[in-house]
Write a structure and sequence with these properties.
- The chain has 14 helices and no strands.
- It is globular, with a radius of gyration of 20 Å.
- Helix 2 crosses helix 3, helix 5 runs antiparallel to helix 14 and helix 10 runs parallel beside helix 14.
- It is 81% helix and 0% strand.
- It has 382 residues and is mainly α.
Length: 382
């Protein structure tokens, strides 16, 4: 890297981290806590299948995004349209997120449709965003760069939570649902105000010389080429299995803490803040450990801590249990996903990053849909 390119590289890295802050703000206030509680407590209030309905709402955009992401990535690589598509996805996510404030009690179908649009745009934006990682890193620092982006992005979650706090602090109470729903408008503004400048600051990508090629043929050629790169399908299968558990925890922890430990909305939000404060240094540390100790060893350590998390969720009781659960989650949730991302970034040519992170999204979204659906079924039958 030349001395002249270093400032430009740093500006790109700053924009990349900034965009992830916008994504994490949305991720906390919509699928993880804010809208998840609003949907099950108000929109689907009195519905005995509320958890199952929420799992269906989560699964639909995950499946669609998984099917579209490889095609969108191949198109972005072939025609050099990563930044344009990222801006479009950001605008769509912000608009649909603001519209989540519209459905009232009983408007279950409308809420699911609007959430599907918002979350689909969010998921596709995340896949396009990930494709910049190989352009920002090399094999010696990819885990640290990935961990830096994921770790610092939790500041976006904290900022968005604090902006929404005046609207959600009172919880979801009769007559106050409209005030609570304004938090979704604030979240939409956060996504637009933070995400759009960051997206525009990312460098435009170049077409790879096959701009007029058929993206379906590109995908088929890539899959045929995996015969000579068996590490790629092996990774995708492993990631599928890991991500199944990880994303189920993401989408249902807020509901789990409310239903199992009787936490109020305010308490769930404060526990979410505690999670962010643990996750920031932990994700940065695991990124450093991944480059220093080896990504596979670091990932195995994170999976060992995951076993502790799941044991706590299954058997822990008492006032200390919720904080212990979110504390352990903070150690590994972002760390595991960041390490998986950096491991995958080393397996393919950088000029096919959009396409390959589309396959990464396909594996992740397919497993993400299965886990929440199973959770919803079990929660409904319990």
């Amino acid at each position: 890297m030349s001395a002249r390119s270093l400032p430009a590289r740093r500006r790109t890295l700053a924009a990349w981290v900034g965009y992830d802050m916008a994504l994490h703000g949305y991720a906390l206030m919509i699928p993880a806590v804010g809208f998840a509680l609003y949907f099950t407590s108000f929109v689907a209030a009195g519905e005995p299948r509320a958890s199952l309905l929420w799992s269906i709402a989560v699964a639909i955009p995950l499946v669609v995004a998984g099917l579209l992401a490889p095609l969108l990535g191949a198109l972005a690589d072939a025609r050099g349209r990563h930044r344009v598509l990222l801006v479009v996805a950001t605008l769509a996510c912000a608009a649909a997120t603001a519209a989540l404030a519209i459905p009232g009690q009983g408007a279950i179908v409308a809420a699911i449709v609007i959430f599907t649009l918002a979350h689909l745009a969010f998921l596709l934006a995340g896949s396009l965003y990930n494709a910049y990682l190989p352009k920002l890193s090399d094999e010696n620092n990819v885990a640290r760069i990935s961990g830096l982006g994921w770790g610092l992005s939790y500041f976006g979650s904290i900022a968005c939570l604090l902006l929404c706090l005046p609207f959600v602090a009172g919880g979801i109470v009769p007559g106050g649902e409209g005030r609570y729903a304004l938090a979704f408008v604030v979240t939409a503004a956060f996504v637009a105000v933070v995400g759009l400048p960051a997206a525009f600051a990312l460098p435009a990508t170049q077409a790879d010389g096959a701009g007029r090629g058929n993206p379906y043929r590109r995908i088929a050629d890539s899959v045929r080429g995996w015969r000579g790169r068996p590490q790629i399908p092996r990774f995708l299968i492993g990631y599928y299995l890991i991500n199944d558990a990880v994303v189920t925890v993401v989408y249902f922890t807020g509901i789990f803490l409310r239903d199992t430990f009787g936490l109020s909305v305010q308490q769930v939000l404060w526990h979410s803040l505690a999670f962010q404060l643990v996750a920031i240094p932990a994700t940065l540390a695991f990124g450093w450990l991944g480059d220093r100790w080896g990504q596979q060893r670091a990932l195995l350590l994170s999976l060992a801590i995951w076993a502790i998390v799941l044991l706590l969720m299954a058997f822990a009781g008492g006032a200390w249990a919720p904080l212990a659960i979110v504390g352990c989650l903070g150690l590994v949730l972002g760390s595991t996903q960041s390490l998986c991302r950096s491991m995958f970034a080393r397996l393919f040519p950088s000029d096919r990053a959009g396409e390959y992170f589309g396959f990464h999204a396909l594996a992740g979204r397919a497993s993400s849909a299965l886990g929440p659906l199973l959770f919803g079924v079990v929660a409904t039958l319990a």
